[in-house]
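Render this sequence as a predicted structure.
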Amino acid sequence: MKMRMNTNMKPLFSVLMMIALLLVLAPVLAQDDAAPPTYTPYPTYTPYPTYTPYPTYTVLPSLAPTETPTLTLTPTPFIPSYVVLANCEEFDQTGGVAAANVPIEIAWGWVVTEPQYIARHLRYAAYDIRLNDQPIEGFETFRGPLRWYPGDSGWGVYWNVPAGFLAPGEYRITYKVTWAQPVDDGLDRFGPGTPRPVVESGCSFTVQ
C-alpha cells in the first residue's frame, strides 16, 4: 500500500535533512579551518667553489747531456834542495855554491855508536843554529827518526830544515850545541864537567 507523506510533516523533514547534512559536512569544514601543517624548508644550497684550472705547463726542449770536462794535470817538477851541512867546517868541508833557483836546506845531525846514547843527548842538548846571525827556530819539526847510517858507522838523527830560495850572495851558518847534563856518544863525553862542554862550528856558502 503506498503511503503518503503528510503535508504538515514536510517542513520538519527538511530541517532533519539539513541537520544530517551539517553533521556530515562538519568534519570537512573543521579540517578547512585547521591550521596548515608546518613547512620545513630545504637547507640553503651552498654552491661549490669556483673551479680554478691548473696552469698550462710549457714543455722544455730536451737538454743535451753535459760533456764531462777533461782534467789535465800538469805535474810540478821536483826541484832537489841544495843541502848545506851547518857544521861543515868541523869536518874540513865548505858549503860550496848554490844556484839562486834552487831551494836551500840546512842540515846537521848527531851520531852515536849505540842507539841508547841518543835519548840522553836529545833530552839535554840545546842547539843554537843561525843563518847570517838570524836564529833558526822551529827546527825540531824537521828532525828525522833514529836510524843506522852506514856512512857514519853509527846510529844517528838528522835535522833537515828548509831555508827556501835565497837571494844571490854570501851566507854564513853558525852552529853551537851545549848540554844541561853530561852525555856520551860512545867515543867521547860532552857537556858540563867533560873535556867538551860546548861544540861550536859553522859553514859558509854562496848563492848565485
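Summary. The domain at 82-207 is CATH 2.60.40 (Immunoglobulin-like). Residues 129 and 137 are 8 Å apart (CA to CA).
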